[in-house]
Amino acid sequence: MSIEIADAEDRPEPGADADGTGADGTDVGASGVRSTADGGIVAQLRLDHSRLFLAPSLRRAPEIALEPDYWTEPEPGRTVVFVTAHGTDLEAFEAGLETDPTVADPVLVDRYPDRRVYRVTLTDRAVTFTAATAAVGGRLLDCSSCRAGWQLQLRFPDRDRLVAFNDYCRERDVSVTVDHLRVSDEEDDGVVALTDKQQELLAVAYEEGYFEVPRGISQDELAQRLDVSKSAVSQRLRRAIGELCAQTL
């Protein structure tokens, strides 16, 4: 019996079918690493559920704005999350942490004039979204609180992965609101376009002279004008300006 060996250029890459795709349909490059880098969908979503991670604490202090710093697993089965809280009602937020069923052992680890940093341990009663995002092949681009839930910016390789994430949420009665969707292309730099609220805030801030010296309007006045909290104004401004810088610099 003779065995024919294909030329290297005709041979499929390791882990790939003859057409150069992996078992899950992803492309396999010359290095053998599967790729979902080209194309895809970028989605901005708002999630709401009574047992969503830290949602009970956010309901106790809805003016607080939260930003997760990072997750870590110091030991098997125990996930610790560091979060930064912005706002003026931090005492109410801390009172909420003490009774929040989604977290345990809350600790204030840093205090600044405009924010505080906390460490919390995730409980098995919490509904989360990071593992589900990874499980369907998605990537978390950004995450921040929005009233009693979370606002996420996610990238999925294709529409089916986005649908799978939505199915995960629906099965757990997590409310999903789509704020923004766009198709990613080969030249995508990973930056999500400004949200409608960010655009509105920047427009009002610019028109009223917020960026002038001296300023024509304060963050307190912007908050009153837009009927939102000062912490929400501060957070939106930082994110909007950061995204504009990332796109232009």
From TrEMBL:
Pfam families: BAT, HTH_10. Residues 15-32 have a biased composition (Low complexity). Residues 1-32 are annotated as: Disordered. The keyword Methyltransferase does not apply. InterPro entries: BAT_GAF/HTH-assoc, Cro/C1-type_HTH, HTH_bacterioopsin, RNA_pol_sigma_r3/r4-like, WH-like_DNA-bd_sf. Keywords: Transcription, Transcription regulation. Residues 215-235 form the HTH cro/C1-type domain. PANTHER family: DIMETHYL SULFOXIDE REDUCTASE TRANSCRIPTIONAL ACTIVATOR. This is Bacterio-opsin activator HTH domain-containing protein.
